[in-house]
Write a structure and sequence with these properties.
- By secondary structure, the protein is an alpha+beta fold.
- Helices cover 52% and strands 14% of the residues.
- Strand 4 (171-177) and strand 5 form a beta hairpin.
C-alpha cells in the first residue's frame, strides 16, 4: 500500500528536521552562554611600585603638565611648566642692576661732572606736599606715582632736571608714610643762580604727570619693572625681610601689603599714574625750603 509508505517517509523527514532544529537551538544556546553573557574576569591583588615625589626649588603656579598619569619618563624630561613671579622679579632686579652699572660706567668714562666739583657751593632745595598715610587704599599706587616722578634713575625729574637741563647732580622724590598721614618729599642741590629754575621745572614736571597722554608704554613698563625689582630685594636676604617686618609693625601697614604692591606694579597704567598725580600732587599745598649760600 503506497499511502502508509508515504506517511512513514514524511514522519522520517519531520523527525530529522526537528532533530536539526533542536541541535541548532542547543548550539546557539551554547554560543550565547560562552560569549554573549561572558563577564570580564577581575583579579584582586597588590602591585609594588616606586613612588617619586617631585618639587620645585621656587614656589609658583603650574601652567602646563606635559605627561599623563602612569606614563614612563626619562631623566631630564620636562614634566610640568611652572611660572614663578619671584623669578620674574629677580630677573627685573638683575636687569635694573645691569642698567645701573652701565650708568655708573658711563659716568666714569665721562669723568667728574661739574656738579660734583661745585657741590660744596650748592644750595639745598626741599619741596614737600602733604599726603595720605599707609592705611589709605591709594597709598600703594601713590607711592608708585612718586617713583615715576623722582624715585629712580630714569624718573622724570632725573631725565629733565639732571640729564637735559644739567641743573643738579641728583634729584629724588619719595613718599614718606605713617599710619594716618604722610608727605611727598623732593630733594636736590643746585647752584644758587639756578635754584628758581630748578623749582619751576620741578613744579612743571609735577603738573605734567597729571596728563595721561604724557606717558609712553615704555615708561610705564620701566616703572613697573623697577618696582618689582625693588620688591624682590625685600625677599633677598634675612635682614631685608626683617626690615620689611619692622616697617609693618612701626607703620601699621595693612595685611597683604607686599601683595598689594606686587599687584599694583603688574597692573600699572598711565591712567592710574595720572589719577594719583591729579588727586595728590597738589602744588597749591606745596612747601618749599632752601638752605645754603
Amino acid at each position: 500500500n503506497p499511502m502508509p509508505e508515504a506517511k512513514k517517509q514524511r514522519q522520517k523527514v519531520l523527525t530529522i528536521t526537528l532533530v536539526i532544529i533542536s541541535l541548532a537551538i542547543a548550539l546557539l544556546a551554547l554560543i550565547g552562554f560562552l560569549f554573549i553573557n561572558r563577564h570580564t574576569e577581575q583579579l584582586e591583588g597588590q602591585a609594588e611600585a616606586t613612588a617619586v615625589r617631585i618639587s620645585g626649588k621656587l614656589p609658583g603656579r603650574v601652567v602646563k603638565i606635559y605627561v599623563e598619569e602612569g606614563q614612563a619618563v626619562n631623566k631630564g624630561d620636562t614634566l610640568v611648566h611652572i611660572h614663578s613671579s619671584l623669578v620674574d622679579a629677580r630677573l627685573y632686579q638683575a636687569e635694573a642692576m645691569q642698567q645701573a652699572a652701565a650708568a655708573q660706567n658711563s659716568k666714569i668714562d665721562q669723568g667728574t661732572r661739574i656738579q660734583v666739583i661745585q657741590s660744596a657751593y650748592e644750595l639745598g632745595v626741599k619741596l614737600m606736599i602733604p599726603a595720605i598715610g599707609r592705611n589709605h587704599p591709594d597709598y600703594v599706587p601713590l607711592r608708585i606715582a612718586t617713583v615715576a616722578l623722582g624715585g629712580y634713575f630714569g624718573s622724570r625729574l632725573m631725565l629733565n632736571i639732571r640729564e637735559e637741563k644739567g641743573l643738579t647732580y641728583g634729584i629724588t622724590a619719595s613718599l614718606i608714610g605713617y599710619r594716618h598721614s604722610g608727605f611727598i618729599s623732593i630733594s636736590s642741590q643746585t647752584d644758587p643762580s639756578t635754584a628758581d629754575l630748578l623749582i619751576s621745572e620741578t613744579i612743571a614736571e609735577i603738573e605734567r604727570m597729571k596728563n595721561p597722554d604724557s606717558y609712553t608704554a615704555d615708561e610705564v613698563n620701566r616703572i613697573s619693572r623697577f618696582v618689582l625689582s625693588e620688591l624682590a630685594g625685600v625677599l633677598d636676604t634675612p635682614f631685608s625681610r626683617m626690615d620689611f617686618l619692622q616697617t609693618q609693625v612701626t607703620a601699621s601697614t595693612p595685611a597683604g601689603y607686599f601683595a598689594m604692591q606686587d599687584n599694583a606694579a603688574r597692573q600699572l597704567t598711565s591712567e592710574m599714574l595720572a589719577s594719583m598725580a591729579e588727586k595728590y600732587f597738589d602744588t597749591d599745598r606745596l612747601f618749599i625750603a632752601t638752605a645754603g649760600k
